[in-house]
User: What shape does this take?
Amino acid sequence: MRLRVLDYAAILLSLATIAAFSVLVYGGGRNSPRVVIEGSGREWIYPLEADQRVEVQGPIGITVVRIHGGAVRVEKSPCKNQICVLAGEIRKTGDWVACLPNKVIVRITGSRETGGVDAASY
Amino acid sequence: MRRATESDASRRGKPAADAGRRYFNLTAFLSAFCLFLSTIEYMIPKPLPFMRLGIANLPIILALDIMPVPQVLLLVLLKVVCQSLVSGSLFSYIFLFSFAGSFASGLVMIAARKAGGKAISFVGVSVLGAVASNLVQIVLARYFIFGESAWYIGPPFVAVGLATGILLGLFCEEFARRSTWYASMKGARR
Assistant: This one.
């Protein structure tokens, strides 16, 4: 028997689904570092590579988090002591920065770079 | 079967209202066929619990051309029940998977058959149905049982669906081409 046009279309569509699915599941995207922002009982996840400005609503106002050039920092905070802003940039897996008054926590997850050096002294 | 065709002729005036009765015998026959094929399917060892050949879907694919949509859906429901009776999963969460997968596949196949017309054969219909069923089951597995790791079995699972879908579709095409019974059923519908 001969297959018809839409048969080939159906098979191609399935193959495309399998391919896309495989890339999504087995592709490298899963292990690259991600920025997890927690606030007001919710959680947002962003890739560390893409530049982004995120506003998180907390109990005392809006905390502005900026992801830029592979680093994250709290750009603006409604809190009194501004520790989160002064904490500066974080860029490594496991690092975190938090604004406790506004209940916002920003941390970086993902696989650790191997062979990196934490600190060096002479 | 003969009796069904006779009553067909006498009732030709009011098709919609009597569709249920008109296709009563055929529905019963095809769902019995589903039960039989489920048993065969159950005897074949599976590498993973959800990896099925899907031969119990054969009557449903054949029904697409010889029954109206409500009867096909009824047949899908009966197939799910038959399958779970054979595998003993009628009152377990597997029933939910089977139910969702079978209806997704049933609806997709009905839509594909209606929309595709002459441009699609049972092969395309069967492939779309198998893939739809497997995708739905993976999504369910993700949210109800395995969590994120469910995605990892996804691609091979869909690939198996594609392969068995093609085989089943080829078989149905061949069957439809050769069977005089099927030809007469198709004729009776017109």
